[in-house]
Design a protein that fits this description.
Elements lengths: L3 H17 L12 H7 L7 E3 L2 E2 L1 H8 L31 E12 L19 E17 L2 E10 L9 E4 L3 E9 L4 E10 L33 H4 L7 E12 L5 E12 L26 E12 L2 E15 L14 E17 L4 E15 L11 E15 L3 E12 L27 E13 L2 E12 L20 E9 L1
């Protein structure tokens, strides 16, 4: 067992060696300011732009956000015997994010029908703030770090009301193990509330592009697999997991990463005061029945200014068919199973001389759905839902960015699940007669960073099909797919 001081020095050495071994740095981008204050690094050491990670950022996250060059508070000796040392940083580990948006939907908010936002303006909706996030993030002890994220939403979602939620958060214990010159093993144990929160690449749902969207955009109404919707602020989950990364070979150019977690309900077995799971864009609205395991495997290879990742993950969830507020579904009621499988890849180029970078990402999630006998949320006993996301980001001199992508969702038509059954509570005549989830779009976004902690973006999304609607004649409302085209002006400020 190494001493605390030796462990601290060893971690700094490991990060330095990793940086020499091809972990290229970019210049001015931004991330959590508390991490920059803790390490003394530019935010761009770990990010091309938030939340996209560089290899250095992946190493910092692997080490549980504990790398630091700060002097801690002095340990005082008690008059009788020795006191326990208090490892408290001399600078604040709090950060604050503010996000604001302005949104125009081609057909106005009326195109969302009964699933729209109550009380919304017909169009041109402004949210200031849309969201305010408070983070407590960084080193707690030399082997324990935190990423605690509390979010205030300014309203505009289904409820139309603002409120506080515990967003994607984690507490991590981690330890590096050095085996020879060219082999480093990093292990960790964590608790978190969001599947994929601990992932290192921007191909998984919690960190996937587009990274921020307005509550009034059409994208928030597109059906998605369970693992995409199980975000910390939306679902009351709690997870316990362990991960390991073996970084090996000449210049430590090869990364082999594995993560395994198990999730359960975060608020016990009684009626949930927040109403169980939210029914986002069609899907079971009850809580988990039992535990939901999650497994992730990924491989990364670094060479020169490039790094490339390929990976896969899966999550297997059993969910009560309806909210636990309904006594029939607290136990013994219909249970739906949602099994999610993913393949993903990411290619990244970092030019440290001119401060330019390019990241290309692709992810495909296949969800196998099985609905329990007596369920009320599905027209079928089984089905599937697929989500494909291909996107790229280019930053020029770390000040100007152009990004865009193609997204496609397709799967089994389900009249009750996706709101096309006139006899179902979720009926929405604005969407397809058949209850198809099929949606495809292309999007493009331009961004500008006047300062490291401020970003302005303008995004335009063009829909080829929206929940089965292509031509206006394919829905009772006579809205066509182009009615859902969305223009968003977005602003991020962090301190």
């Amino acid at each position: 067992m190494i001493s605390r001081s030796m462990g601290f020095k060893k971690k700094k050495l490991i990060v330095a060696l990793a940086a020499v071994g091809g972990m290229a740095l970019s210049s001015s981008a931004w991330a959590l300011p508390s991490f920059a204050r803790q390490t003394g690094w530019s935010c761009a050491a770990c990010h091309t732009s938030y939340p996209q990670l560089t290899p250095m950022g992946r190493m910092f996250k692997l080490l549980g956000f504990t790398t630091t060059n700060l002097q801690r508070q002095q340990k005082l000796q008690a008059k009788f015997g020795n006191s326990v040392g208090v490892l408290i940083s001399r600078v604040s580990q709090f950060s604050i994010f503010l996000q604001a948006s302005a949104t125009n939907v081609a057909g106005g908010q009326a195109v969302f029908g009964t699933s729209g936002n109550p009380g919304a303006s017909p169009n041109n909706n402004v949210q200031f703030p849309q969201q305010v996030s408070l983070f407590y993030a960084g080193e707690v002890t030399p082997h324990i770090g935190s990423f605690l994220h509390i979010t205030y939403s300014g309203g505009g979602s289904v409820s139309g009301n603002g409120g506080f939620n515990f967003d994607d958060s984690s507490i991590v214990w981690t330890h590096p193990w050095k085996f020879g010159t060219n082999n480093l093993l990093v292990t960790g144990v964590d608790v978190n509330n969001t599947p994929t929160a601990m992932d290192l690449w921007n191909t998984t749902p919690d960190w996937q592009a587009p990274f921020f969207m307005s509550d009034y955009s059409a994208s928030t109404h597109v059906p998605q697999p369970f693992i995409v919707n199980s975000a910390g602020a939306g679902y009351p989950l709690a997870g316990l997991g362990a991960y390991a990364a073996d970084i090996f070979g000449p210049n430590k150019a090869n990364w082999l990463y594995a993560d395994a977690d198990v999730y359960t309900n975060a608020q016990g077995t009684q009626a949930n005061p927040v109403g169980g799971f939210a029914n986002f864009n069609g899907g079971p609205s009850g809580r988990l029945s039992g535990a939901a395991p999650y497994v992730r495997l990924a491989y990364q290879h670094d060479w020169g200014n490039w790094n490339w990742e390929v990976g896969a993950y899966g999550m297997w969830s059993s969910v009560y068919d309806n909210s636990v507020d309904n006594i029939l579904y607290k136990s013994g009621g219909p249970i739906d199973t949602l099994d999610d499988y993913d393949l993903d890849t990411q290619l990244q180029w970092l030019n440290i001389n001119d401060n330019n970078n390019l990241t290309v990402r692709a992810s495909w999630i296949n969800e196998q759905q099985h609905f329990g006998a007596g369920n009320t949320s599905s027209s079928l006993s089984s089905g599937n839902l697929n989500s494909f996301n291909l996107n790229a980001t280019y930053w020029y001199h770390d000040r100007y960015a152009l990004q865009g992508g193609y997204r496609n969702v397709w799967g089994s038509a389900n009249r009750i699940l996706y709101g096309a059954n006139p006899n179902a509570p979720s009926y929405n005549a604005n969407y397809s007669y058949t209850g198809s989830p099929d949606t495809s779009d292309e999007w493009i976004e331009a961004s500008y960073l006047p300062w490291w902690n401020t970003r302005f973006s303008l995004r335009y999304v063009v829909y080829n099909k929206f929940r089965g609607v292509g031509a206006p004649s394919s829905s009772a409302s006579r809205y066509g797919a182009s009615s859902y085209n969305t223009l968003e002006l977005l602003a991020w400020i962090a301190y």
